[in-house]
Amino acid sequence: MRYDLVIFDNDGVLVDSESLSNTILAGYLTELGHPTSYEESIRDYMGSAMHRIHELVLERTGRRLPEDFDDVFHGRVFEAFERELRPVAGVTEVLEKLDADGVPYCVGSSGSHERISVGHRKTGLDRWFPAGRVFSAQDVGRGKPAPDLFLHAAREMGVAPERCAVVEDSPLGVRAAVAAGMDVYGFTAMTSAEKLTEAGGTVLFGQMAELPELLR
């Protein structure tokens, strides 16, 4: 294995949550008077930290989202997670392979620590990601596409950025990894290869089972 650390995005890469959360986000924004389709939510907000949703809505409409927006949204998302969330197909085998090869890995997610924890507990991925391997945009203040989160994760794991590989499925995440000086592997299950390439992705794959060989 040619990397000293593999950093995984969470939503859409480890847990199959993007369709659930973006359906809920589009519905809630529409309910609040900001008509948003599922496709628009994927396009504008996939991979975003919560602060970016607030910033984009304010920029576009001049209106602030309610103070309890985050709490209500996450409450609805967590209920859906408990009912429906599954791990991304093949990701457990990838983690087993990394363990067998002795390659460290961690999470670098725009989601909150609570969101990551709820999703991992429901899917059983918590066994692979103890607290010391979980990093959130909450830890750095600025979410993707800023490189801060990935640089923070590498620093905490004791690995130089150029020795890291990032696994991402959103243009925002790809841009953040490129800005951090890391190699990025674009997972095309939710986003087209064209969009990830435009963001700076160079290695693209559509099935998680392909990843271990690509990382070699």
Automatic annotation (TrEMBL):
Necessary cofactors = Mg(2+)
Reading the lineage from the top rank, the first entry is Bacteria
UniProt cross-references to SUPFAM superfamilies, sorted A to Z:
HAD-like
Keyword Metal-binding belongs to the record: yes
Claim: Metal-binding is one of the keywords in the record: yes
Q: GO molecular function, one example? A: metal ion binding
Query: Mind listing the UniProt keywords for this protein, alphabetically?
Result: Hydrolase, Magnesium, Metal-binding
Pfam families reported for this sequence: Hydrolase
**Family per similarity comment:** Belongs to the HAD-like hydrolase superfamily. CbbY/CbbZ/Gph/YieH family.
In Swiss-Prot or TrEMBL terms, this protein is called Hydrolase
Q: Which organism is it from?
A: Streptomyces auratus AGR0001
